[in-house]
Design brief:
Elements lengths: L1 E4 L2 E4 L10 H8 L9 H7 L15 H15 L3 E6 L7 H4 L4 H7 L17 E8 L14 H19 L4 E4 L4 H7 L4 E2 L5 E2 L7 E3 L2 E4 L7 E2 L2
Parallel strand pairs: 3-10
Antiparallel strand pairs: 1-2, 3-4, 4-8, 4-9, 5-9, 6-7
């Protein structure tokens, strides 16, 4: 973009200047040579903390949900929703099937199941989305992965806060994250399987899904 002042022509920085900027193209589209240069790897490799042994006195599910959403937005989330997860299917062993091993190999892992033997399933999912000018799935550069980095930070801190309240919370990637986001009221799934939101269209990145047993008021239910 240029600005013309009489006989003088001055270059003026703008969005169009990025198209011919090799540094910007590399920043967005070139994967890092060393993953240690990225914040995302540090957050992904950080261990989860312990659950506080005494549950905190909390408000009603409606008020608690509003607090969760307010904290997520304070941490940088543009959109936040809560989905009620379905009860997981019993395992073949729990059903008493004779050929448990063969059934286990073809049945998908049930959604919402807690980690470890004997734990109750997670009844709720907190879904956070951040605006993404560039799609992280097609922009592997450090700049293109900024929405992923922001999402990891949000879900890491938010799940840690829930554990500090004495409730279970696990943040992890989910292949059905965009579908869960639609269930949580953040938008709709288009013909290409992409989440489309009223606020940002499809320029959003759905962060790791937080599964928790913190009593919440869902925006909708997964079926």
């Amino acid at each position: 973009m240029t600005l013309r002042l009489g006989p003088l022509t001055l270059s003026w920085p703008g969005r169009d200047s990025r198209k011919n900027d090799p540094y910007w193209d590399s920043f967005i589209n070139t994967p890092p040579a060393d993953l240690a240069n990225t914040v995302t790897e540090m957050i992904r490799n950080a261990p989860e903390g312990n659950i506080f042994p005494t549950k905190a006195d909390i408000h009603t599910p409606e008020i608690t949900s509003s607090h969760v959403k307010e904290l997520a937005k304070y941490l940088g989330a543009n959109l936040v929703g809560i989905a009620s997860l379905p009860s997981p299917l019993p395992s073949p062993k729990e059903r008493g099937d004779s050929d448990a091993s063969s059934l286990a190999s073809i049945l998908p892992s049930p959604p919402g199941r807690g980690e470890g033997e004997g734990l109750e399933p997670y009844p709720f999912a907190v879904v956070c989305a951040v605006r993404a000018e560039y799609d992280p799935r097609t922009s592997p550069g450090i700049g293109g992965q900024v929405p992923v980095q922001n999402g990891l930070f949000i879900t890491f801190v938010l799940s840690a806060w829930i554990r500090e309240l004495g409730f279970r919370a696990a943040a992890a990637p989910d292949l059905n994250a965009e579908k869960l986001a639609a269930v949580a009221g953040l938008g709709k799934i288009d013909a290409d399987g992409r989440l489309v939101t009223p606020q940002y269209g499809n320029q959003v990145h759905v962060a790791n899904i937080i599964r928790t047993d913190l009593p919440l008021e869902p925006d909708s239910s997964a079926t």
